[in-house]
Amino acid sequence: MKLKQLSEMLGLSQTTVSRALNGFPEVSAETRSRVMKAVRETGYRPNRAAQRLATGRAGSLGLVMPIAPGLDSDVHFGEFLAGLGEEAVKHDFHFVINPSAPEDEESTFRRLVASGNVDALYIAYVRRDDPRIALLNTLNMPFMVHGRAVDQGPHSYPFLDIDNTGAFYNAARLLIQLGHRRIGLINGPAHFAFAIRREKGMRKALAENGLPFDERLAHNGLMTDDFGHQAMEMLLEEPEPPTAVLCSSTVLALGAVRVLDRRGLKVGRDISLIAHDDELPMLKPENFSVPLTTTRSSLRAAGARIAERLINRVLQHGDPAEQELWRTELILRESTGPAPVR
């Protein structure tokens, strides 16, 4: 189907249909809805080259994907990308994924902006003091940050983040209320802002109850089940092992539980476990051998929200929620119980 046929079917001019497809603000919401419904029903696809000439937009979101020897793919990134994609396809936006070595990210961002192949950018896996944020603030292109830097002064950039400090504060406080005094932490890489904030939340809960943060009971590493397995082995080898452990992901918890099962330790009785749940569809906390108590926030929903906000900015619909901080839920299940008597 061509634009002329689509406009005749709708009883609208080709100009009106084109403007509705391209997000021009003077087209009413009702008309745009009619046009988009017809597009879905007929399978119409606009000519990308013509669309770009008419609007000056590429209809694409830019992602820079870090690659390096030994850098494993991440199931968390895939889930976030699924949410981003679900929202982008509603507006007929595409992705441009540009691989980059970590040390070459700045020039990769500059090339991507200069290419004209993207209308907006997003970054994730934010570091303590992230130079990419300062760079993107200097480039003439909408961008969004999934997360927040830690040591970067006032937040002067658009972001969506979850309250990582509050999540692990609440989780640690629950364990303390259950009588636990030695609490372990299996966390993400130490330079990532989310990991820093989760440790901060745990430290806060411990300090409020006059308990020390034992560095020997905290381990940082890749968000994989292998690292969860390794870290739990190290925790249990301590002269005084923890009676409870916080994990930064259900993926880490999967490895931790393998160790506990092999040693004949019962989760929720011999040792309590709380994990952060990104709502990964293939790893549901309620399906563990002992259902996991979790702090919960959907990565897929975050991806969809970031795509929505970026596309609104590209289409000049504004971005009233310049900065968003989502609270997490604390979901109680059988993996947490009173501290065992030792």
From TrEMBL:
Source species of the chain: Xaviernesmea rhizosphaerae
HTH lacI-type domain location: 1-55
Pfam families: LacI, Peripla_BP_3
Entry-linked SUPFAM superfamilies: lambda repressor-like DNA-binding domains, Periplasmic binding protein-like I
One Gene Ontology MF term: DNA-binding transcription factor activity
Sorted UniProt keywords: DNA-binding, Transcription, Transcription regulation
Protein name per Swiss-Prot or TrEMBL: Transcriptional regulator
